[in-house]
Batch of 3 targets.
Target 1
Amino acid sequence: MFDFDGTLGMVRAGWMPLMLDMMMETLAELGPDPAALRDEAEEYVARLTGQDTYFQMAAFADHVRRLGGAARSGEEYKAEFMGRLEGWRQERLEGLRSGSIAPDELMIPGSGAILEALTASGVGVYLASGSNHDDIVMESRLLGIHDYFISIHGSAPGQPSKRELLQQLVDSGIPPEEILTFGDGRTEIEETARIGGVAVGVASDEPDCATVDPKKRRWLIDAGAHYIIPNYLEPDLMELVGGSL
Ligand SMILES: [Mg+2]
């Protein structure tokens, strides 16, 4: 089972610089040292990552008020940011459609090769994501990986969650120790470890995706990851996958 965002696809990667750029449009005029203000914003943005975006935006509103600026509400800032993020995502998708962006530029390195190798050796591969179901179906098509999956499950009424999909696989008679999950998020790693499967944490240093990001690594190990990889180009990865069959 593969997670989608940050595990295979990077269509939504790079949200943090986008958020900080938006904040700096307001903060830059409120102090003498823009770089220091950006560092300060980055500290609370990073600290509050993983929770609802509202909390980052509420901290931003507090920051603006502390500097004597006229702050909008956390809800308003969140709506503004989500609108920009969506515009940015659409630009990337348009680039994929027109061919100005190659699929490999928006995937963790080696994604296509690992999916090809797994399916060629007869392994059934599933995609499970917390993102909108129709979006990930369309994005996986644009990235050229849609047809590798037996089934794709995003967030939509009637679709199983990651936890439910794993349980369905076990109920269908697959021994838990033969279930292999790749993910960059806490949920899929925890749930895989819980049922007795093998969990591989993808701790990529986006956007380069060349080395392991130490913060992500710690977080994924805490969630129960058995292995950590920066991308799918790891020489030992095929051996691991082969050994788990
Ligand atoms: Mg993810």
Note: Residues 15-98 form one domain.
Target 2
Amino acid sequence: MEQRQLGKGGPMVSVLGFGAWPIGGGMGAVDEATAIATVRAAIDHGITLIDTAQAYRTSEAIIGKALKDGYRARCFLATKVSRDYSREGIRAAIENSLRALQVENVDLYQIHGWNPQYPIEESMETMEQLRQEGKTRFIGVSNFNVEQMQQALKTAWFHSLQPRYNMFDRQIEAEILPFCAQTGIGVLSHSPLAKGLLTGRYTPDHKFPEDDERSRNPRFQGEAFANYLAKAERLKKEIAEPRGLSLVQLAIGWQLRHPAITCVLVGAKNPQQVQEHIGAVGWTLTAEELRRIEEILHE
Ligand SMILES: NC(=O)c1ccc[n+]([C@@H]2O[C@H](COP(=O)([O-])OP(=O)(O)OC[C@H]3O[C@@H](n4cnc5c(N)ncnc54)[C@H](OP(=O)(O)O)[C@@H]3O)[C@@H](O)[C@H]2O)c1
């Protein structure tokens, strides 16, 4: 699997990352044996980066089980502190995460989001101390804008940003991606399949179960849902299929055209989905295909 460097002076990571939110049950229940098999399938296919978080329900505990039998040594393990970014909150969170993951340290520890309630100086200072203590090898942030990254950088260097990015969510292209490229911050993109809008799996009448976050997301209801699915269908028929790709593979591979993207974090619920993701790597889109994609997305 192709690898890219995660930020200036950072480690090499696979361009596909395993997003571990769905195996925690956030997008509908996944049984534990299947969840463990899914994490292991990802690593067996050459995906090295595993991304989870304090807030991903049972995800960290499942990963802890999946990483036994030598799997821990084969992956770059990333998690996040999710709610309380005070010194005490971050310290308590990493201890809980290490316990759930059954590891001595993680490779990347990230601040899940910006929260003005907690001074960023204190949060970043604590993150840097955890790095120096060896609890994490690298630190990162998630869902920060340029100004917030600039503020965080005044206290400590971090190697990565984790923003939302997919064909339907391109806000980061204007300022955030150029800033990261210029500054040497690696980018782990999240929600690359727009949580299922870019898979070709759903029809507008689909109803998501209550335990699936999509049941409460307006994008997955009514006219908005139908419009997204119509665009996705065109991308599939007009771009993906003529290339012998699935829509899922097109949506993931399209991200890798951008040199600022280090790794695309894709969620999966079973080993078959992971297998399909692997086909998103190893090809490039032509200028004409990229132009057609823009046309479909903007029509
Ligand atoms: N930092 C943040 O704030 C933040 C926010 C969101 C996500 N993330 C990270 O980014 C990762 C990826 O985002 P995500 O998991 O939320 O959404 P996603 O990757 O856009 O979509 C994942 C969902 O798409 C469907 N899918 C995946 N592969 C498929 C395939 N081959 N064929 C058909 N359907 C397929 C699955 O759901 P169904 O089969 O049920 O449709 C899966 O749960 C997360 O797991 C997490 O690590 C971070």
Note: The longest strand covers residues 136-142.
Target 3
Amino acid sequence: MLIEKYELEVFTPPCEPGAERFSAIAHLPNDIRDVFPYLNAALRGAIYEPAVPSVSWRKAGHYVVFHPDRIAVSNVEDRDAAIKELEGIIALVNRIWEQRDQIEPSYKTRRRPTGVEIYKLLPRTNCKACGEASCFAFANKLAAGQVQLEACKPLLEDPQYALQREELAALLDVDLPAIGPKR
Ligand code: SF4
């Protein structure tokens, strides 16, 4: 097992006092950088930066960063959820490490899409159904990994946006459910 023990730290980021979102860090006693090319290959949308080295990954609206000596997860709704999220991620890293003989390691660095690139593919109606004041605000939050594409209901449910929807899914490297309103 790659990660057998760790020290857990849970906190509210100092840059967001009162934001009521939590971050958690698992401090690791051993260096895990050897798993990074396997994480890069196995985690959809992961961004590997070998010079740092680090791997960053958006997971269901959370932002996860793997460093050689720690794993951090941010934008979690409460303390217990932050701990649970981090424990799930550690289990995932251990699984990927155990299966590394079956994974082709990837040393590529993918480019992170910008808010402007995302904005150009949104409906741009500023309807606020996603809870944001504008499509541009939503695009910037999406680029930062703070919201999920599924929050834009018109994009998911209105067939007129089918092409944009496919392009956005490819740009963000995510899977989306079939188009149409939820029943
Ligand atoms: S729901 Fe979609 S179309 Fe409406 S404001 Fe949000 S991003 Fe724009």
Note: The domain at 7-102 is CATH 3.30.310.10 (TATA-Binding Protein).
